[in-house]
Amino acid sequence: MDRFAFLLKRPIQLIPVLLGISLITFVLIQLTPGDPVRIMLGPKASEDAIAFVRARYGLDQPILVQYFYFLLNAIRGDFGQSIIYRSPVGPVILDRMAPTLFLILYGLALSVAFTLGLAIAAARSRGRWVDQFVRLVCVSSVGIPSYFMGLMLILGLCLKLKLFPVSGYAPTLIDNLYHLFLPALTIAIGVTPILTRNLRATFLQQMDADYATAGRSKGLPERYIFGRHVFWNSLLPTVNLMGVVVSFLIGGTVVIENVFNIPGLGQALIRAVLTRDYFVVQAVTLVLACGIVITNFIVDVVTVVLDPRVKL
Amino acid sequence: MSALAAAPVPGRLAKLWSATPATLKVGGAIVLAWIVLAGAAPLLSSFNPIKVDVLNMLKPPGGTYWLGADALGRDVFTRILYGARADLMMAFFGVVGPIILGTLIGLVGGYLGGRIDMVLMRLFEITVSFPYFVLVIAIVAVLGPGLKSYFISLTLVNWVSYARLVRSEALVLRNADFVLAARSMGFGHLRTMLFHVLPNALVPPAVFVMTDAVLTIVLGSSLGFLGLGVQPPTPEWGAMIAEGTNYLTSAWWISVLPGLAICSLALGLSLVADGLARLLHTGS
Amino acid sequence: MEELVRVEDLAIEFATQFGTVPALKGVSFALHRGEALGIVGESGSGKTVACRAILKLIAANATVRSGRILVEGQDVLAIDAAALQHFRGEKAAMIFQNPSTHLDPIMPVWRQVAEAMVLHQGVGWGEAKARAIELLRDMQIADPARRAGAYPHELSGGMRQRVMIAAALACEPDLLIADEPTTALDVTVQAQILALLRRIRRERQLSLILVSHDLGVIAEMCDRVVVMKDGAVMETGTVDQILTAPRHDYTRRLIASQPSLMKPAARKSAELAAATPPRLAVEGLKVRFRSAQSLTGWLTRRPAHAVDAVNDVSFTLSRGGSVGIVGESGSGKSTIARSLIGLVAAQEGRILVDGKPVGRLLQERPPAEQRKMQMVFQDPFLSLNPAMTVAATLAEPLRQHKLCADRQIPERLAELMAKVELPANLLERRTTQLSGGQRQRVGIARALALEPEILIADEVTSALDVTIQAQILGLFERLRREMGLTLILISHDLAVVRYLCEQVAVLRQGKLVEYGPTEQVLTHPREDYTKALIAAIPRLSRRSDAAE
Amino acid sequence: ADSKILRMGYGSDVLTLDPIKTVYGSDIIIQGMMFARLLQANADRSEVGPGLAEKWDISEDGKTYTFYLRDAKFSDGSPITAEDVAFSYTRMRFQKDSAYAAPFQPLKEAKAKDAKTVVFTLDRRFTPFLTLTEIWNTGIVPKAAVEKMGDDAYAKAPVTSGPFKFVEWKPGDRVVLARNEHYYKEGLPHLDGLEFRYVADDNTRVSMLQAGEIDVCIGYPVARQPELKAAGFRADADISSVTYDMLINHSKAPFDNLKFRQAISHGIDRQAIADAVTLGSGRPATSIFSPELNFFDKSLPLIQRDVEKAKGLLADSGVADPSFELLVSAGIADDEKTAVLVQAQLAEIGITVTVSKIDSTSVWTRLIDGDYQAELNWWYNETRDPDNALRWCAWGAGDNKSYYTRYNNEEVNKLIDEAAGETDDAKRGALYAQIQKICVDEVAQVAMFHPNWLNGYSPKVKDLILNIGLQFSEIDQTDLV
Lengths: 312, 284, 548, 481
Ligand SMILES: Nc1ncnc2c1ncn2[C@@H]1O[C@H](COP(=O)(O)OP(=O)(O)OP(=O)(O)O)[C@@H](O)[C@H]1O
Ligand SMILES: Nc1ncnc2c1ncn2[C@@H]1O[C@H](COP(=O)(O)OP(=O)(O)OP(=O)(O)O)[C@@H](O)[C@H]1O
Ligand SMILES: [Mg+2]
Ligand SMILES: [Mg+2]
Prior knowledge:
The complex is a heterotetramer. Chain B is an all-alpha fold.
């Protein structure tokens, strides 16, 4: 079908984006003061030792030459070495993808559940106290930093009530539903207000839409109109917003990973940036970029599936 | 049919007032209150917000220290008052750059379309996928830490939100009859874009900016470990929260109270946004 | 005859930011079983509010100040929610002006027809679907089994309106309320829908309330008429009585404004027109739209889909001359206008102004040339910048083209306002604070500000009340006579064209199927298509033939 | 019985398991538990005694050290020979990318005399050498395994000589060790294994300790001490050799001005800073290095804050614009607090301090490049011998230019060398006192206070302290009950 032609076009558009990101990242991080070799060897190492190791990693070459080699190797599937860990980039970041992915998906699942519950409750009782309460909570919770929220949850739910573990990522999926509940909850607390506001507004708008009135004029019950018409017509803006939120989450889980000590990509990225571990930064950036592109892609697919009018 | 325009000035103001949604009034009052408190801080407190006093470290709320003292014996109430200055500034300047840059890019891309839009959209995707930390570190390294770097790094990244909003409006507006009408009267693209498309594409960004302002404060404190945001000893709510986290179990007031201040500002700005949206959408 | 609906002293007001707006101020009327009642009145007179109240479709910000609505003796406004659900759909149903927005865009149409059956009559979805398809067939939708699975946007406007009627009739109500069911459709489709309504009314013994601002439609369809203005009933009576002996001034004005009843304006003789050199000549104009090729299309070497929106169109116009372009929706009328003005590029053909060819696109034309030819857009709600005041809207072209010194601008503005018969105190208003008719006149004033020699008016009156339409047609006529304006009038309403234009061009699928002096084309149409267009014009006098 | 696994949490990440390639706390701690050294310190590191070497001789001229090894095995069961010891030392001293060869400059050669005897040749008399043979980077590695695996592979899965053997390393997460069955001390260690986890956030680490997810929390915010103690955790400070100081760039104005430096030294209140930052658990600094080191000059007085004197010194200095930028690594709460205190105190004597928080790598880079005026930093010493400390912080002739301060006093340099060659404790003491006096008078760096290690231990953990040199030296004795 023609409406799904974009499925084929996307991968091609991806190439310039990934090239652009990798080039800018590479140049920027290399121009930033700080030398990974010095960090690897520590402040007590001699200049000789540093020069020796720099040459070993090819860091004595001009940046663009280095970038060229990076690209060449990347095409062959070799993303270079982590200078700080003195080992190939692959293993350093591969292990970290699962926790971050799980965390984001779990957080989103909770967010979606909360958002649907709150937005439906608010919209169905519009103007009354449930609605006002939901609005108030959504509006004022935007200002709570996630590290603060995370710490409060740990102090309250882990230490006081001993309901959840403080940290960690368990080896099995089911265990993680328990282990990662609090971090996912923290994500949800950050994301839900944004989504809920949007969804509630769309609900209210769609409840006034002409087709809803037409439904009423046919004698359809309010519940049915909401469930079969208004609900499905309201999802798209929120799905799109969710795409944006996920984009921000993908690079932004570092704070939550830190607070709950989850060995994820966000932590890996920030450490790599702080230690100027060039090739790890590069690889993580590309992984995250792919994540974002895939997210947008999924949003597009959902859009096309949800709305028969949309052509991309 | 009586002419709005011909009405005498007081009547007009009264009309404007009665046409202003209640949320806008309440929200505006909260924001205004913070502006006043920030401005009048020296009148409201006799403490110096940056004067350390080791003898009065961690004093709980009550007595001379209404809201307690922090880990360096500074009065929390005073620091919240003065902190409003930095935060209002961050909230304001943190969104000015992004909104200008984002609006322009979104406008040009959406209005002109075609190849320019293609290129801008790739730029958009690159920015969205680009790791923010790398940029912050680089900018702080070049320009030094502090608010200037903060504003610049925000501008370079946050424009995408506004570009997205404005572009989707501009995409529709560029084919709107009144825009075609402007073109058919021989107005150039620049004029059409600035005077006909732009003013009509501003509602979504104007609403979003209120949330964004709060998010910039929160971001500043979350990324304090990169040297972002105000530098010590300047009081700032986000930094106060961050400073207080170690004391959360022993001296909650250091971080919880500035947290409430941020929430109240968030509430105020959101109410303004709600009201603004209602006001602008009804189109009068 | 038994009385089905009785509205008694209904008063409804709306709470708005600017205070309360009384929409209905004590309206009373009655409908007998099997009867068709028409409601006419200018825009904003309360027609829709009154109709919706019968189904208790009352907006959240509305309060019923007084009155009762008795349907079969029961007060609709007093019944409870459960009873209301049964009343709606089973007793009475409604169809709306705009079929596009009143259908759920993301649900296949058969479901929207069937859902009322499932919920009211407890039919299973499978059976309901079969019945829905039958209903759609009954509504004369071709190939209903296949169309049933379509989404609203895949159907034409006329088909959508049929779907809505099918959905309204799904539970076989006694009463159908139709609120301007054809205003959004073009004339040929309008005629089909009206015929359909007549048929089902006959076959199903339906009682009908039909709202329209077109007296022609009412005359064709209804037995009795209610005339409304400003939330009050002006008069009520049988159609004949109202049309032949209106008691109220307002009703008389309404009747006089029907374009089919307006006397054709004075015309230049054909000889005179031929003698003067043509101001505008269009030669072999061709506009082709190519849809963007998809990757799959490109891979399979499938040629991009192309539409010839305008195909080899030629006509000429002398100074002060006027041509009307008519045709069904999508026939290419607007595209001709846009390519003349340079908003879309014509692939072939030439446009000559005073004998000299002009550029295909706006940017290829020097400003002075751009100024010469102006266009008034179809929709007054879309064609004015909502962020500007009237004064700014009108002053901007003056300033940009330096048509007068800055200090003379106020004077010019006043002149322009006077020309389109708008009070000068509207200048400071935002365009959004004007009524539709006022806006359309501002749009015209804006075009006139540039002192154009050629004016293209694209369906400028179709969104307006007949009374305002009459005013605007009068204005064009005056400008043409007094200023020698050359006019291209685009319309799907032949009555309008007949009133104003010397020549008429009939367009079908981008081709000129007929072109000549108006009288000749209207009285002796050569093409069946033209005949159909003429036949579709609702006329006050045609009530008798409609009845059989 | 349940296996006894000790779980430790630490705030920085393990980067390598090869002892010669690092100077980082995380690596040092874990490597200390994996590799045995020739000599071994006692728990508080006050003495060194036999380790892999049962006994040792020092030649008359102090240039030849002979160590006699005991029977011992690596974790793979192969014997630890003199060849391995010579290999380990040669590698540490001469391999190009050895990270901490500096203290071993006098070592010229390490040679196996026979299977159990190893001989070190020094180019001069160098008294501190003996204590250096117990620091982490002299851990003995198996020559055969290193050569077979290559450095990089070895660093990821080393064969060990200490109480624990390597099991697993997940970079950025944890290192897992298990009891080394071949450990040379019969019946030790008591523990079956050990997990060394990277927990970046201080508060999270404390919470994990409280929730029982770790048994040892290395480093906690001092504000949480009362809470930990109240909950029954062992949370008293472990004594450290840390000096917390303000590094000042002697090659840059205004710190090239002696009077200005002195004005600062007299303008700050060390006691108040120590109290405010460590909440009383640390001591104000009187000398350039920690009182825990040998030959610390106890007679040096605490410089009391004297605003008038400081103002006078400032006036005398003739510095026209008394202001400077103080660099702080962003995200370290104590540094920020100290900076604000210094800023406030110096403001009173008329010096304007601008605090700049930047990321730690940028700080290091500017420090090393000399592109800074002042910076807050801390350092610790591996042993109790001050030679190492002074070569780090006041030896202008060294690679690190007196901890990047560019302080370079020929006399001090000479005295440091002289003291290192002296064997008589009384004479060494006198030399070190002289050096300390000069460094304090000239304000080589602004030493401010000596904090201690703040570690929390679950009550189950028996016999474990972190000693002054950042080592759990008695980990083989540690038990979980
Ligand atoms: N929800 C509402 N809120 C406020 N005012 C309303 C609302 N609905 C209708 N009105 C007002 O009530 C009056 C009557 O409106 P109504 O829609 O019945 O007019 P109408 O006769 O159907 O006009 P048209 O021919 O334009 O459809 C108008 O002045 C309108 O502005
Ligand atoms: N930009 C475009 N791209 C592709 N096709 C177009 C475009 N604009 C118009 N068309 C097609 O050209 C044909 C003529 O359209 P046009 O708008 O001129 O019709 P019209 O006669 O003005 O109809 P209406 O009475 O509905 O206004 C239609 O089939 C339309 O779908
Ligand atoms: Mg209506
Ligand atoms: Mg058209």
